[in-house]
Amino acid sequence: MAKAPQTLSAPALVVKHKGLLTFALMLATVMQVLDTTIANVALPHMAASLNAAQNEITWILTSYIVASAIATPLTGWFSDRIGQKQLFIVSVIGFTAASLLCGIATSLGEMVLFRIVQGICGAFIAPLAQTIMLNINPRERMGQAMAVYGAGIMIGPIIGPTLGGWLTESFNWRWVFLVNLPVGILAVFMLFTQMPKIDIKIRPFDFFGFGMLAVAVGALQLMLDRGAEVGWFEAMETWVYLGLIIAGLWVFVVHCMTAEHPFVDLKMFKDLNFVMGLLFIFLIGITLFSGLALLPPLLQNLMGYPVIYTGVVMAPRGVATMLSMVVVGRLVGKFDSRILVLFGTGLMAYSLYMMTGFTLGMDSTLIVWSGAIQGFGMGFVFVPLTTLAFATIENKYRTDATSIFSLVRNMGQGVGISLVTAVLASMIQVNHAELGARLTATSGAVMNLVPSLLTGAPQIVAQINGLVSQQAAMLSYLDDFQLMMWVSLATVPVILLLRGNKARPASNAPKKSAEELALERAHAMAE
Question: Where is this gene product found (predicted)?
Answer without folding.
Answer: Cell membrane
